[in-house]
Amino acid sequence: MNASGSPHPSVVAVARDEGHRFSKPLRDEVRLIEGVGIEGDAHAGATVRRRSRFRGTWTEPNLRQVHLIQRELFRELAVEGYEVAPGELGENVTTDGIDLLALPRGTRIRIGDAAEVELTGLRNPCVQIERFQPGLIRRMIRRDAAGTHRRAGVMAVVVEGGVVRAGDHLSVELPAEPHEPLAVV
Fold first, then answer.
1. How many CA atoms lie within 13 A of 45 on its CB side?
2. Dihedrals φ, ψ of 122, to 5°?
3. What is the pLDDT of residue 59?
4. Of 78, 80, 102, 106, whose CB neighbour count within 10 A is largest?
């Protein structure tokens, strides 16, 4: 059973924003477009969309079409004194019941009956998180004997389009082994 009391992993909330603002307003639904991202979102596009990701050519593939964060992170942050709600860290899809950060690169997540995304990497916590709530960026990075762990969510590309809503079920398909851990994209 996941944290919401449901026996299956699910979508908690969906968000999109036409502008390049940090937080994204919640929506009743979003439409994922294969190879592009979220219809109407500023980060949608088959190729790199942000100056911070520019590496010499605007033809590089956009590996950051969809941003997912697990709701369990918000509960951990609340214990640490930070109140964060879905969409406020800029994510498009807030999930419940899946440890997104533990999944390998290439994992596919089916959302609802039609949409599917493939994980490409981790979101690197940026200065905008600190501007949102002072001190929060330190909470988004954990260091221990095993290394550095970024907790700001995962990035994905859309491999199958469809409409996504809060309450949609999620299913995970791992890639063939050997598994490659998620790295910052």
1. 13
2. -95, 150
3. 77
4. 106
Which of the two residues, 127 and 56, has the higher pLDDT score?
Answer: 127
CB contact at 8 A, 114 and 162: yes
Residue with tokens 């999930």: 95
Q: Which residues contact 81 (CB under 8 A, 6 or more apart)?
A: none
Superfamily (CATH H level) for 10-173: PK beta-barrel domain-like (2.40.33.20)
Q: Beta-strand (E) ranges in the chain?
A: 10-15, 26-27, 29-33, 37-38, 66-70, 93-96, 108-111, 115-122, 141-144, 147-150, 154-160, 162-165, 170-173
Report the share of the chain in percent with pLDDT over 90: 76
- The CA distance from 159 to 147, in Å, is 31
Q: What is the DSSP string of 101-115?
A: GGSBTT-EEEETTTE
Read off the pLDDT band of 34 (50, 70, 90): very high
Contact 111, 164 (CB under 8 A): yes
